[in-house]
Design a protein that fits this description.
The protein is mainly α. It is built from nine helices and no strands.
């Protein structure tokens, strides 16, 4: 009698291959946005057929990376939210917690704009955008942040600044763990410079305690 095929090791191997391909894609796309699937297969240590078995094309691979980014972002938001804190502390804490996610996916989001469309990017970033807008609304009501711009517009401006700073990290022009970005975010929102630095320093121990290891 023929013995049953041991499918669980095959499934584990398939999951391992998929995870390795995605990790390699994050790294290689960060180095070269135009890297081909064939080059990714070689860098992942799998044959072309294996990669295409998981991701039949570039769009499918980028969509998988986008969904991974979305899941990671949602997980970080669970610890980044501080609705009970004063708005300036809540914003500083949010920026510090979310920074590693932005750093990991800075080029993925640029690729998504080109390959997947702006609607997909907006979907990924919607929870973070809503949280920042809510914090800014609260801070404007409390007189902590300036009211020169509506909260949603100010949020969009801060987001653009963050991605610009992340790109400077990518080029090597800036080194930051999110601390400096958190300070300039508060300043851009209307907090005096000295106070902004003090607030970011105040929230630092809490950030260290909750910050997830998103860079594995």
């Amino acid at each position: 009698m023929t013995k049953p095929v041991a499918r669980e090791p095959q499934r584990r191997n398939s999951r391992s291959n998929r995870a390795r391909i995605l990790a390699t894609a994050r790294r290689e796309l960060g180095r070269n946005p135009d890297v081909t699937l064939e080059e990714l297969a070689r860098a992942s240590g799998v044959v072309r057929r294996t990669l295409f078995g998981h991701f039949p094309g570039r769009a499918a691979l980028l969509e998988a990376l986008a969904e991974e980014a979305s899941e990671t972002l949602r997980g970080v938001l669970e610890t980044a939210r501080r609705p009970e804190e004063p708005a300036e502390r809540a914003l500083a804490h949010f920026v510090r917690c979310i920074w590693p996610v932005g750093d990991r996916y800075r080029l993925l989001l640029a690729l998504a704009r080109r390959d997947l469309g702006m609607e997909r990017v907006a979907e990924i970033l919607a929870p973070a955008r809503a949280e920042v807008t809510s914090i800014l609304e609260r801070g404007q009501r409390d007189g902590v942040f300036h009211t020169q711009l509506p909260p949603a517009v100010l949020s969009a401006g801060l987001e653009a600044m963050h991605f610009a700073l992340l790109e400077q990290v990518n080029t090597g022009a800036l080194e930051d763990d999110g601390t400096r970005t958190a300070v300039v975010t508060l300043i851009a929102a209307g907090v005096p410079t000295d106070r902004a630095g003090a607030v970011v320093e105040e929230v630092a121990p809490d950030v260290t305690a909750v910050e997830p290891d998103v860079l594995d």
